[in-house]
Amino acid sequence: MSPVIPIQLDTGCQDAPVLRERGQREVFCGLTGIIWLHRKMQDAFFLVVGSRTCAHLIQSAAGVMIFAEPRFATAILDERDLAGLADAQDELDRVVQRLLARRPDIRLLFLVGSCPSEVIKLDLSRAASRLNARFNPQVRVLNYSGSGIETTFTQGEDACLAALVPTLPAPPVSDEAQAPALMVVGALADVVEDQFQRLFEAMGLKRVSFFPSRSSACQPEVGPHTRLLLAQPFLADTARALEARGAQRVAAPFPLGAEGTAAWLMAAAEAMGIPADRAAPVIAPARARAEQALAAHRARLSGRRVFFFPDSQLEIPLARFLSRELGMQLTEVGTPHLHRQHLAAELALLPAGTRLSEGQDVERQLDRCRAERPDLVVCGLGLANPLEAEGMTTKWSIELVFTPIQGFEQAGDLAALFTRPLHRRQLLAA
Predict the structure, then answer these.
(1) How far is the C-alpha of 424 from the C-alpha of 83, rounded, in Å?
(2) pLDDT tier at 66 (50, 70, 90 boundaries)?
(3) Beta carbons of 294 and 415 less than 8 angstroms apart
(4) Nearest Cα to 284, choosing from 408, 426, 198, 383?
(5) Average pLDDT taken over every residue of the chain
(6) Which residue has the higher pLDDT, 7 or 267?
(7) How many CB atoms neighbour CB 137 within 10 A?
(8) CA quadruple 218, 224, 227, 231: dihedral, nearest 10
(9) 254 alpha carbon, distance to own chain's centre
């Protein structure tokens, strides 16, 4: 088993030049974040105020059966709303009243803005404030924007969690409350959260919370003694809001792969005052299992060349994982937004000379991708089929968000998401 590699902030690509591009973009909108958020927050409901296109998008992304009753829906803006012939605020009040009467289990209601609601300047913050005054404390009503006009799709989670931050309680004034408390920030699958919780407890970390929590009645406390540990790299607004309330961010790589997860956990231990010689033996068995699971995939991926189109903001941590743990060569790593502070540890672990790009000009990036002819292209759905038709092998980046990939036990599953497309191409060519 390899040792935990310390983070060197003066190596890799931390100070590397970045190609910044502005042009046509190929991304989903932030409404898709509802798919994993509604599974995580079990008493929350997401009401999208949008068009039928918004409804079709979410239904398709979630694969909802007609007889299912999920915890999201769309309040359709029709021609009368768009033409200003109806009072959209009054209609929204009626929709919410019917919804809460039908679903008394709802404790947290999000009004989610969309491109259509923003185009007609529908003030959902005013609606949320009015409805919250009416239905609180039985139901708390908040709002955020899931519009894709200026954002990429993972920013829907960021906007949602940032809207929740002002509602988080402050810790009580007591001696116990003055001790550091760890808050893991970012929606994780329940199975992944449970795995991390067991490791934290075994390391001796007693005051650990996860945000978002599974229940709105158990929101974590936040204050000057909170140490926030990001589990996702696309939570810039959420981190900023938590820091404004006094929380201190723990610098760490993200928990992808054996190396990344080990460094993430060790950073948490250090921030909470747990000695390394106590934390390392706890994570060693799980790390050994992860490295064993990765070995077979490394044999198939080592030396293969990969190109990342900007899509999910997971690109840089994934590139680090593929390069260092699976031996892949990085031709270009594109990301919609590059937050140097949050990604400093990841950039330091990338191979020197890696080509980085921020933003998107899709035609220019397609030209560079065609010139490189990589073995694997990680991209959005809109680019995958055309590139496959040109003979390239692709991996849908959105699948990397929908799938539990964080932690030691998921390391092999994460690697398999990259080996499967290459195996499929091999079978088709046979």
Answers:
(1) 50
(2) low
(3) yes
(4) 408
(5) 90
(6) 267
(7) 7
(8) 60
(9) 11
Distance CA 37, CA 92 (A): 22
Q: What is this structure's pTM?
A: 0.92
Give which of 143, 132, 235, 228 is closest to 180, Cα–Cα. Answer: 228
Structure tokens at 55: 């409804």
Q: Is the pLDDT reported for residue 148 higher than 80?
A: no
Count CB neighbours of 305 within 10 A: 15
* Residues ≥6 apart with Cβ < 8 Å to 264: 229, 252, 253, 254, 255
What is 130-178 written as a DSSP string? HHHHHHTTTSEEEEEE---SSS-TTHHHHHHHHHHGGGSPPPPSSTGGG
Phi, psi at 79, each rounded to 5°:
-65, -35
Report which of residues 90 and 194 the model is more confident about.
Answer: 194
User: Do residues 342 and 238 make contact, with C-beta atoms less than 8 angstroms apart?
Assistant: no
Angle between helices 276-301 and 257-271 (to 10 degrees): 160
- pLDDT for residue 81 is more than 90: no
CA distances from residue 301 to 297, 325, 332 in whole angstroms, order as listed: 6, 10, 17
Amino acid identity for residue 6 in this structure? P
CA distance 363 to 25: 9
Structure tokens at 270: 């250090």
pLDDT confidence of residue 19:
86
Distance (Å, whole) CA 401 – CA 322 = 16
215: helix, strand or coil: coil
Give the amino acid at 203: M
